[in-house]
Amino acid sequence: MAKPPQHAIQPTRSDDYPEWYQQVVRAADLAEISPVRGCMVIKPWGYSIWENMQQALDGMFKATGHVNAYFPLFIPMSYLEKEAAHVEGFAKECAVVTHHRLEPDGEGGLRPAGPLEEPLIVRPTSETIIGEMYAKWIQSYRDLPILINQWANVVRWEMRTRLFLRTAEFLWQEGHTAHATQEEAEEETRKMLEVYADFAENWMAMPVIKGEKTAEERFPGAVATYSIEAMMQDRKALQAGTSHFLGQNFSRAQEIKFQDENGSEAYAWTTSWGVSTRLVGGLIMTHGDDDGMIVPPRLAPQHVVIIPVLRGDDTTTLVMEYCEKLKASLEGETFNGAPVRVMLDRRDIRGGEKTWQHIKKGVPLRVEIGPRDVESDSCFVGRRDQPPKQKQSIPRKDFVGTIADQLESIQQELFNRALTSREQVTRQIDTLDEFRDFFTADKANPSAIHGGFAHCHFAEGEQMESVLKELKVSLRCIPLDAEEEDGKCIFSNQPSRTRAVFAKAY
Amino acid sequence: MAKPPQHAIQPTRSDDYPEWYQQVVRAADLAEISPVRGCMVIKPWGYSIWENMQQALDGMFKATGHVNAYFPLFIPMSYLEKEAAHVEGFAKECAVVTHHRLEPDGEGGLRPAGPLEEPLIVRPTSETIIGEMYAKWIQSYRDLPILINQWANVVRWEMRTRLFLRTAEFLWQEGHTAHATQEEAEEETRKMLEVYADFAENWMAMPVIKGEKTAEERFPGAVATYSIEAMMQDRKALQAGTSHFLGQNFSRAQEIKFQDENGSEAYAWTTSWGVSTRLVGGLIMTHGDDDGMIVPPRLAPQHVVIIPVLRGDDTTTLVMEYCEKLKASLEGETFNGAPVRVMLDRRDIRGGEKTWQHIKKGVPLRVEIGPRDVESDSCFVGRRDQPPKQKQSIPRKDFVGTIADQLESIQQELFNRALTSREQVTRQIDTLDEFRDFFTADKANPSAIHGGFAHCHFAEGEQMESVLKELKVSLRCIPLDAEEEDGKCIFSNQPSRTRAVFAKAY
């Protein structure tokens, strides 16, 4: 067996984080670039993680009273024109369908034919098409609230794409709700932010800051945008989910009206909220290490992989039988309310190569079984949150009996680790010099990772904007749990009552 | 309470079947036409049925070794050109993306801008884009088989659309597999046909004929196409799922090559197979009656609806408490391996209206609970496979204790009924006159439903084609279980060894 390299992923995180990311996506077989500009192919391991995310989120949406439905992929161009800020936000990057067939071009190829009367936009988000339907469905206060979610693909013609983080097509869910009162719509907006935070922290093991965006960073057409912000290992923030209170902006633009209890006509109050396959990117960048992906157990397609270590002699049958039995007994146990997911890797390739594949994919627990383990009725176990060579022999019965605890412990460890990482790069900053310093690379060591979350007093305005632009930093959000305190904006010296959190971001 | 009409759906099936279908889709709140040409909005009740179909099928796909992945929505125009029959099949009806942004048109509106170098097609099916990836992924026989399924939306620019049955955009799954040998690929093709037949019969309660398509009806580019064919209540067939053996046609067009065990280069053998939201249409047309939809219990979003019948007096609390308890105890029971799904309809609308809504939606079991039912500790139960007024009082304990049996009995009854219906309209036909007669409307009663499945000896050729065209009949398939027997083609008198099944079709 060839000696494995010191780290399975080259370059390492500290060498070159962006390239490390691409290499993890490749090594873990999560996704790859497709021949179609900006679109990715999500490979089975990556898709399976997304399926687990979907299932968890879908359960949470349903538990909070939502139902799923499906709306058209296409949006008539004229719909986008209805909400001014909205068109401004999306018109510059959308796929436009102009024809409905192909015909021979006379040179052996094809050309578009059958021009459409009105061009169609491939949905970049569905407020306008869904709002159009809601306007039909909602007549009376009795028709409210409408609490609908959609799982769908959307397209935004990004010029610079990165697998999972920013692609022209991505998969997501978009919730769209309509309410009779402002209070109820605001409550819904915050409730869904809580759902996202709960999911991020308890399923993804990714700590997040819940906060409100400033006007500058709002969703096009929203009255208020809330987000959850996570900190990646390269000290950049990732916006991991957003929830928008749309006020009556869309309902006025689209005539979503109803008769209230007093018989008067009123516009509905709407919300929208979404998370996307970008979360898979967040998972990689939160937990991955220099050996590849680490999948938190609650989202792992496989919790345990069993790797038979065969000598090619007469012990093979014995080892394989032991592995099969082990698999069955592990599958009889439950973790997080469902049977433990176990893969027995029967492939005829070398054990070392096999083991490294599963390390790179981030399977939480690896069990190597050779003739000696069978003899001692034990399991040789490696935890993905520990170094690859730190393995331990555990009596089979103990291993099987405590499997849920072990998985839970990995889940918890990943969260704690991410939280510690975040705390290490979080500063309360009170001067512009310190702020500049925090977000400026070390001249002696320009490739060294720097920055993080800076909590600062602020006042929106040109002075702040110009510094942020210069440093390529953004105001991520005003944390919901920010305490009121007297302070001065570090950019303008104006009085400030609360701190916002700043970071470089994806 | 207004007396309900004799039938909840007008017109009835025998009055005007196509219009009855539209009215059921509306009355059951399954879907509606969207403002986007040819695209539908799948409403929560309809989508929930589709989700249940997805879940069942997905489990069957995984149990047969498949994994899910996701490929791009767009296909470069040049890809379609690679497989000649394939482009012929799809070029005439596809959405073509030609621009990637919108700009102001100078008159307050927008116009497409940013022309693409190469137009993109919104996938009508994904053989070409998936094949392109497989060509990269497959190097050696060790990389085979690849067994991938995708859940996705696809677009085919149909000019005449009908909700669920034929829409420009629809949801489906498409399996795409690649194998080292012809035998293995053929086995896969037939295995997935069996999965579809199993699903249709055991989940949808819809009997199907499994068979092979003739050359004329094959998927564009396939060597062999198999389908499952169901009989609707208007005596028209519905193709409910297809499985294609693609031979090496696509692998040659796309260079999907591998080194076999002997080190020689070989083209892979590929298959594809799919079912779509069309199945929801099949469900309606197989089981629906003149009061609306009937959802087979295994696919029903709700198995039981509890409808409190309140007098507006002091018995209200008592009734509601009884209903809540009943709901909880029903949910403690299991059906088909999962908890019984129960809805307690707490809405403040009249009991009669409520009951009829659930009848139209096709909920398998309705339980009305009034003060007298509480007093006698019983349930007043209506089964959706029986007339609306045929209800019976059942002691609560018996009702709860036998809930799984009752649901299973409805499932079985629906299948039996559909099978009987199909048998009643199935003929073995041996003369052209009889064939014409079978498929020609009664002049005295031209709107009367006629036709069905005709099993006939046949020989492909112009004589057959011209009769079929004239009668608007198609050869559905050659049943896999057709026995060999000597016969003569009813169209041409040529010798024939097996019967095909003919029908008018959707």
Q: What does this entry look like structurally?
A:
Chain A is of the alpha+beta class. Chain A folds into three domains: about 15-285, 2-Layer Sandwich (BirA Bifunctional Protein, domain 2); about 295-415, Rossmann fold (3-Layer(aba) Sandwich), CATH 3.40.50; about 425-505, Translation Initiation Factor IF3, CATH 3.30.110. Helix content of chain A is about 35%, strand content about 30%. The first copy, chain A, is built from 15 helices and 27 strands. In chain A, the strands form seven sheets. Chain A has an eleven-stranded mixed sheet, sandwiched between helices. In chain A, strands 18-15-19-20-21 form a five-stranded mixed sheet, with helices on both faces. Chain A has a three-stranded antiparallel sheet with strand order 4-6-5. In chain A, α2 crosses α6 (about 180-200). Chains A and B meet through β2, α2, β3, β4 and α3 of A and β2, α2, β3, β4 and α3 of B.
